[in-house]
Specification:
The complex is a heterotrimer of chains A (222), B (251) and C (273).
Chain A lengths: L1 H18 L1 H21 L3 H30 L5 H8 L3 H31 L6 H25 L6 H28 L3 H32 L1
Helix pairs in contact in A: 1-5, 2-3, 2-5, 3-5, 3-6, 3-7, 5-6, 5-8, 6-7, 6-8, 7-8
Chain B lengths: L4 E10 L2 E11 L4 E5 L6 H8 L5 E8 L2 E2 L11 E4 L11 H11 L4 H10 L16 H15 L3 E5 L7 H16 L3 E5 L4 H6 L2 E6 L2 E2 L4 E2 L12 H9 L14
Parallel strand pairs in B: 3-8, 3-9, 6-7, 7-8
Antiparallel strand pairs in B: 1-2, 1-4, 4-5, 9-10, 9-11
Chain C lengths: L6 E2 L2 E2 L20 H24 L13 H28 L2 H33 L7 H20 L5 H13 L1 H17 L16 H35 L3 H21 L3
Antiparallel strand pairs in C: 1-2
Classes of the chains: A mainly alpha (222), B alpha/beta (251), C mainly alpha (273).
């Protein structure tokens, strides 16, 4: 399974690299979201800085919707599903590989957005350990959940509109957890944040397992 | 000798539509069989059913010794399907595509490289994005993915469509070579001339059923044909007459 | 009354004859003796609830008359969760057994749950007005109910897709299977989150409730429960009948398909060799 996962992850990342949609479109879009927040909230630096964690993770979620949509689209190409079924590749491996690729893309976007938040909202970085670990856990959770739900709406005409509707309520706990963890870190009280980090890690594990188990059924039955 | 493909009164559904309403088909090892029929007759579905992608709900369906009605999945490793859809990733190069699909089925790197060489894609086209290729070149790439698997049963859906003469010759050569090495080939095609001269046998399909008795391609003596149950049924009900060597066309 | 998916209230429905061709007249409604009894009981208990809730139980010391909304709100929330649980279990059973009754049950339960989610939100909101002065407060229960409503809306949207029925059922079943875990996760995280800022102020099953108020709450559970069950039974039956009417009669479809072949065969015979 790991071999298959590595194969699929490599493929997905290679597609992203060659098509450059992430770097050319998704990344600018997510920075744009940060800027729009400033417009909406009036760049009173104090307010933006206080809300920075929440705004940051909201922007990440929006970017994630795009990244997941792209990931799902790769396997929607005509004939790919049949070929995947014929090849005897492990569906759990396909899932893990795709989720890993999405996670890598998201981490890149998060670094970019992190820079954006520091520059645009005037945030002081603190509590690096908690920030990094919480971000990792949240990213894996978002990637795994998103890949599973992406498979649920894969191939449908209404994929673009149904994916956010299905995915965002499910990711609300991730948003809560990640924001609280970041707030705790930035406020210099990491002790408050670690439990939330634990929640994120739990969600990451849960959805990775769930996706690995369900992907085969979805691949065959759809 | 156990047939490679054995379908008897096979029924298969696409959603709620019975794409196959009663297929009788026996294919022996090393044969090249052409499935012919109008659009919607079920040719593509027969190929996909043999690949284990479409479940057979009634009748008998045994391919390469695997009972498709019990579990259609084990047979997939041993077949190669060349369908209408290419199954290729436009953003990746030819080499990337063949390598991905080759490794996905567990093929040796040697087989993968050889497959690309066989279709003539190991030269300057190797590192071109599939999205930039012509339809014929894409078909060759898909063919390379099939070759890398070294399947025992080839399932080709309109393989000659849209190819130039040189590529068609190349494809026919590859088919012949595969058959020499023990593979079996099932082709679905509209085309009369090309595929028919290649095939040992022609099987007519219409309305999801095998309708006409299996006809020989010109040059094969009728006596060597296996008699299908459909043919027996028709022979017993209608007045027996020798099968004409020419294939009659549906008006 | 039975909810066993393999049978309808009208007898056995097997794979062979459909309602249309089996010689049985298609039922005109989804009622049956058992469900009528249930309906009467439900009505009676609702009447009882009205009496207890509005007349016989006293106003609460703190919340005055608005506590009466709790007699609906709390049971509605409980049965909302029960409905989600039913959907998840039915989805799991469908994935194991693949019989259509489970799919119908999952969908019916989700719809009824959505109705009860609306009731929960509505009563909670109405309760909030006199208590806090606003219709909405980011209280843990209201917030997680709102998210749960979104989950149900999404699930029902997936069920309405215009795709091959097996594909739709498979996707819906996987999504339905995730419903209860999502509900639990959302509930826990929202409660944890809101507990940082305020104690949960909506009344839970407060053990110090006693006397007439406790009775009223119990009656509320009974009434809401009976109404929920009655609605579920009927919605399930409607879904079951829909399935029956759409179900593929394989032999009929095969005969039609073969007729195509027959015509093609005849045309072939008549052309001179």
């Amino acid at each position: 399974m790991w071999r298959d996962a590595a194969l699929v992850a490599g493929r997905d990342l290679r597609v992203e690299l060659r098509s450059r949609v992430t770097t050319n479109q998704v990344a600018p879009f997510s920075v744009l979201v940060l800027i729009l927040f400033a417009f909406a909230l009036d760049p009173d630096r104090q307010l933006l800085e206080r809300l920075a964690s929440g705004l940051y993770w909201t922007a990440v979620l929006f970017a994630a919707l795009l990244a997941i949509s792209r990931s799902a689209a790769i396997d929607e190409t005509d004939g790919v599903r049949d070929a995947l079924r014929l090849s005897g590749i492990d569906p759990a491996g396909v899932f893990v590989g795709k989720a890993a690729a999405v996670a890598v893309v998201l981490l890149g976007l998060e670094v970019l957005l992190g820079v954006g938040v520091v520059v645009l909202y005037g945030v002081d970085l603190a509590g690096a350990g908690l920030v990094v670990l919480a971000a990792l856990a949240a990213t894996v959770a978002v990637a795994a959940t998103g890949t599973l739900y992406g498979a649920l709406v894969s191939g449908l005409r209404v994929r673009e509109t149904l994916l956010p509707l299905l995915l965002l309520p499910v990711l609300a706990p991730v948003l809560i957890g990640a924001t609280r963890a970041f707030e705790a870190a930035l406020a210099g009280v990491p002790a408050d944040g670690w439990p939330w980090c634990g929640l994120l890690a739990g969600l990451a594990v849960l959805y990775t397992v769930a996706g690995a188990l369900a992907y085969g059924t979805l691949l065959e039955g759809s | 000798m156990e047939p490679v493909v054995h379908l008897r009164a096979a029924v298969a559904l696409l959603g709620r539509f019975p794409a196959l309403a009663g297929i009788d088909l026996d294919v022996a090892r090393g044969e090249i069989v052409l499935l012919r029929g109008p659009n919607g007759a079920g040719k593509t579905t027969v190929l996909r059913a043999c690949a284990g992608l479409v479940p057979v709900v009634r009748g008998e369906a045994v391919v390469l010794g695997h009972d498709l009605r019990r579990d259609p999945r084990p047979v997939r490793r041993h077949v190669g399907l060349l369908g209408h859809a290419t199954g290729l990733f436009d953003d990746l190069t030819v080499a990337d595509n063949v390598r991905f699909w080759g490794r996905a089925c567990g093929a040796d790197p040697g087989d993968i490289a050889a497959a690309m060489a066989l279709v003539g894609l190991d030269g300057r086209l190797r590192d071109v994005s599939v999205g930039r290729l012509s339809a014929g070149q894409r078909r060759r790439t898909s063919l390379a993915c099939l070759l890398a698997r070294r399947p025992e049963l080839w399932l080709l859906d309109e393989p000659h469509a849209g190819l130039d003469h040189e590529t068609r010759d190349q494809l026919d050569g590859l088919i012949g070579r595969a058959v020499e090495q023990g593979a079996t080939v099932l082709i679905a095609s509209h085309e009369l001339d090309r595929a028919e001269s290649l095939a040992h046998r022609v099987v007519e399909l219409a309305g999801g059923m095998t309708v006409a008795p299996a006809r020989p391609a010109p040059g094969v003596p009728p006596a060597e044909l296996p008699v299908s149950p459909t043919q027996e049924r028709e022979a017993s009900s209608a007045s027996p007459s020798p099968a004409p060597p020419e294939v009659s066309h549906v008006a | 009354m039975t909810l066993h998916p393999r049978t309808t209230p009208y007898g056995d429905a097997d794979g062979g004859a459909s309602a249309a061709t089996g010689g049985r007249a298609a039922p005109g409604n989804t009622g049956s003796p058992a469900s009528r009894v249930l309906g009467v009981l439900a009505l009676a208990s609702v009447a009882l609830l009205v009496l207890y809730g509005l007349v016989w139980s006293p106003p609460d010391a703190e919340m005055a008359d608005s506590v009466r909304l709790m007699y609906i709100h709390v049971p509605a929330a409980s049965f909302l969760y029960a409905g989600c649980f039913i959907t998840t279990v039915a989805s799991a059973m469908w994935l194991r057994r693949r019989t259509p009754g489970w799919d119908a049950l999952a969908g019916a339960s989700a719809e009824i749950s959505l109705l009860f989610a609306a009731i929960t939100l509505g009563t909670g909101s109405l309760w909030g007005r006199p208590t806090w002065g606003t219709y909405w407060t980011w209280d843990a229960r209201l917030t997680s109910t709102a998210l749960l409503t979104a989950l149900l809306v999404g699930y029902l949207a997936l069920r309405r897709l215009d795709v091959d029925p097996t594909a739709r059922s498979t996707r819906a079943a996987v999504l339905g299977l995730l419903l209860v875990p999502n509900v639990i996760i959302v509930n826990r995280s929202v409660e944890w989150w809101r507990s940082l800022h305020q104690r949960s102020t909506l009344v839970k099953l407060d053990p110090t409730i006693e006397g007439q108020m406790l009775v009223a709450l119990m009656v509320g559970f009974l009434a809401v429960g009976l109404v929920f069950t009655w609605l579920l039974v009927h919605r399930f039956r409607v879904a079951w009948l829909e399935y029956q009417s759409e179900r593929l009669d394989l032999d009929l479809a095969l005969a039609e398909r073969r007729a195509e072949a027959g015509h093609a065969g005849e045309a072939r015979e008549s052309t001179p060799a």
